[in-house]
Write a structure and sequence with these properties.
The chain is an alpha+beta fold. Helices cover 13% and strands 20% of the residues.
């Protein structure tokens, strides 16, 4: 399969912010509002606390 024939990733509700950011040249990550932990890959809950209270942030560096 050639590079041009590769299937593009299909965004999910958990990854849409990430793909929107890549189109704008940004790296967008998720941060748990309970613990402040920033994590990747995207998921609908914080991997350390299990909280679903998360926010999307733009990586700064």
């Amino acid at each position: 399969m050639s590079e041009s024939e590769r299937e593009l990733p299909k965004p999910t509700p958990e990854t849409q912010h990430f793909w929107d950011g890549t189109r704008q040249g940004e790296l967008r990550l998720q941060r748990c509002k309970k613990t402040g932990e920033v994590y990747f890959p995207p998921r609908h809950f914080c991997p350390s606390s299990g909280s679903t209270d998360i926010e999307i942030i733009k990586a700064s560096g």
